[in-house]
């Protein structure tokens, strides 16, 4: 077979430019264009990268420079392909400028004689990631970039890409990037028998990371989070689309797994379009919708087209309606806005443009059902329902339009705790609430679970390694330890969680080997105005309210005092919440002695309805059976042999 033969792809649309397209399609084109315009303002002649303001990563300057080219390039490629189907006069100038600049940047950056040279890739270098991404862009831009280069220019770029051959790639989703580079080299005539063998070997490794239910463990990170969507199911679908003719059986496996994942995935999106801030790289924001367009195009999605578009559009518009731009007008590092303290050390100014993946629907034809059908709003049956997923150890539940992830066991590897283990370690994560950081980088934040502080120490320890033993639609149970090896401090914790509406019942059985202070923190409430946040109440019910959102904790047993972790004014130190400048978290506290075993139980609420936040009546707390009553939520009976008897 001719190594440059290319099977027609779903994004290679035939026919003339359309005279008109659905309003939804044009809206997405305009959103993409609006993100590209500030990037175009940074395009300078003789430069190979965009000088996007932000932090420096822990890689190196060349890696940051390439990242600030590759990711915006892929965004532009998505928009550019859509303009082949529909464009107007105002698009022409931007198209011409960007095409010329990206062509120049590719040739300068890959030229070892140029002062703009990015340098070659190397073992475990970030260049491997960006080169793999660049290949996707080159495939998308064949008609105006790659095929327009002469043989000498193509040879120079291929030689640069060849520096990734034989390199080590991190044992996680990064192995896809090495595969894309080798596949492209083979297609462009740099074929070696070894390449196909290595591609097959890497795929064996990647497929070995598949757990079940559509979820992959992200290799050495040992994590299950949104990377499953915008890495695993995005890259695998791109491989199917670009190079899948090499192994039809593998294509079917990937498509079957993506289909299984997409079956459950819609529940992760709130009515607002937001998804819970959970795991690493959340500054990619609406990137979470990355697999919807590709899975739809390849027949690998069970989600109806109208529903898929509705989810993608709500997610995109949720974040675009937030102040997510930095001073240059480019995408910032943060969540609701620019907030560098929450960002991982591998990130830099160009990093947020992974968000380009969310624009894969623009590769669908305007007449595709994705665009033609009526939008389907969030399903009414999404209310008060839960899906238990045993492979990632997560329960996703939808209630009152928000989404809550109950985390039975997902974690980050001990070698990657610099990313912030609290991003995986809280008991639950909820849209509209986000989370807080600790005022001390050496300590765990207080919100979202139980923490322990050894007597005489300043360090606060939270949950990390976790062994789940119950993952059900109505109940979660897990076993973990609070403490650290340097202090040889350890508190064993068995936690069980049940839920009803916006309330959780949380029961901890703790075995403390050292004297310690234990604190259970509820959801953290944030606001742009600290004066709006009110801390109210005392034992047994303590509440935080911003007027719009609220969170409460009601002590049942084991706790003897209340407290708050708050930033209500600038005098309270630097900002610590990912959503806004000010926040407060309600706390229940107690002290335990060395060699003490104790049961701690509380009710935790987070929502918008003040009547819903009222205290529960504790009707009966017998061993194995608890009965609670609430003026709004009615009766709640929980039966489990682990429930202790509590005298009142």
UniProtKB/TrEMBL annotation:
<dbReference type="InterPro" id="IPR049349">
    <property type="entry name" value="DUF2264_N"/>
</dbReference>
<feature type="domain" description="DUF2264">
    <location>
        <begin position="26"/>
        <end position="376"/>
    </location>
</feature>
<dbReference type="InterPro" id="IPR016624">
    <property type="entry name" value="UCP014753"/>
</dbReference>
<protein>
    <submittedName>
        <fullName>DUF2264 domain-containing protein</fullName>
    </submittedName>
</protein>
<dbReference type="Pfam" id="PF10022">
    <property type="entry name" value="DUF2264"/>
</dbReference>
